[in-house]
Each structure stands twice: as C-alpha cells, then as structure tokens.
Write the structure tokens for this entry.
Amino acid sequence: MKITYYGVRGSCPCSSDEHRRYGGNTSCVLVEAVGEPPLILDMGTGMRALGVDLAGRCAEPGAPLGANVLLSHLHYDHVLGLPFFGPMHDVGSTLDIYGPAQDGSSLHDVLASAVQPPFFPVGIVDFKGSVRFHDLSDPVDFQLGGLCVTVRSVPHFERTLGYRIEFEGEVLTYLSDHQAPADGDTVDDNVVELCRDADLVIHDAQYTEEAFRNRPDWGHSTASYAVKVAQAAGARRVDLFHYDPSLTDDVIDELLSAAGDLAAGGEHPVEVRAAAEGTCVTLGVVERVGRSRV
Ligand SMILES: [Zn+2]
Ligand SMILES: [Zn+2]
C-alpha cells in the first residue's frame, strides 16, 4: 500500500511560515493499493487538493472517479473537505462513505444537514456525482474490494472509529483522534487489536506533554503516548499525526526527536516519523515527493 498525506492537522486548518513544513490542512490521507479504487481516510480540508490530484490522473478532464472513504468521526476537521472535493462535481463520479452510525439518525442525514444552505451553496443531493453512505456499527470487519477492514470504536468524543486495513499481508492502522488515558500508560483493548503487529500506525499526536496536562480530557494524545501504543501492540512504525494548530514546525521537530528517543529505549523497536503534508509512505519504504500540488 502507498499512503499519501494530504492533511495532517487537527482541530482546524492553519497557515503560516511556522506551519509550512508539516502543513496546515486537516485530516485526509490517500491509500492506494494495486488494482483497488482510491481509499480516502477522513475528509478534512486536505481533501480539496486530493480531488485536484485524482482528477489530474483521469484519462480525460472530467472523467468520472470512483473512490471509497473511511470516516473516523464527524468533527469538522474530518468532514469539511467533502463539499470541496472536485470530482463530486463531475457527472458519473461516485464516493462511497463508510462511517460511524449515528444515534437516532443516519450518517447521510447528519452529513447532509451540514452540507446545505446556509452552510454551503448547495446540498449533497445537488452534487453531479453520487455520494453513497454506509453506516458502520462497530465492532465489524468487512471486505472492501481486496482490502480487509477491521472497525473498532476508540476513546474520543461521540462515536469515533479506528480502522485496520490489510492488503496482501501489509497492515495499516488509522487512529486519527484518540483520547490517551489519564495514567498515560494503559492502552485500550480495541486499540491494541487494531494496531497488533501493524506495519504502520497513523496516530493522534495532538498535544505536547504540557498541553496534555492542561487538557487531559479533550480527546487526544501526545507523541509519547503514540509510541506507547505502537510498542504495546508490536507495531513496526508509528507516524505522528493530527497536530494541534499551535504546534509549529520546530515544535513538531522536537516532539519527533523526543518520541524517537523514547522508542529507541523500549524493548520493542518502533520507528517513529512525523507525518507531513505532501509526503508518501510505501509500506517498508519512505519517499519524499514534491509538494507543489498539495
Ligand atoms: Zn480531529
Ligand atoms: Zn475529533
């Protein structure tokens, strides 16, 4: 699988010279597996540039696109890119969105209520492409083409899902928003199950240690806890993700360095990286790509 980061930020998008290296768009990740349609993890503001890139790959301008989405939860930073995803304004395009079932309402109704006037000029039903919704009641495992998807709830707010994606022996785990426990030590059983022996875990690293002490119940983790999760589950690599907008590039560098030291001191070797907008990971190989289009 090849993973490309289009948005790595949490809470709200941000832009400044101090956010340039890691990027300011909110959660959106492209997963490509040979022979499979594009798989999109979350629909944050990075989804706009993703739409541009995917449209550019089509044989002809405006050719229809088919893609799947795994949505962790419905907070703004994970859905705001949907109305700006260009391919949905092309006739024949289809987007299948899998996400957490909502109490008393369908996923469709909840998202449609957020994408309509007066919040946006048109509603989802007015898109030229077709958006199909699939409500997930966890725990559930299902097959998405050739991908095996494991779905479990994880501690955060409202119903939040973590995903384990397996393809031809490779394992990717996506945990964008994850509340670390107060003791900073225990790891939720569902989280261990999702991350067990994963090649790559993409994990919430919203807060510095100091920020977490001030906001211990705001739904997120630190870089050190992300390492702890990877170690507890025997994962091979963890990518820090979902940075608070207050984290500048230099601060993220420091968090990465400290997390790397922590990982190096553990019994189980874990590689630690910091996800950056416009970079790719091919499981087992890291390559940097041009940032011009992202
Ligand atoms: Zn978030
Ligand atoms: Zn959230």
Residues 286-294 have pLDDT under 50 and may be disordered. The domain at 2-288 is CATH 3.60.15.10 (Metallo-beta-lactamase; Chain A). The chain has seven helices and 15 strands.
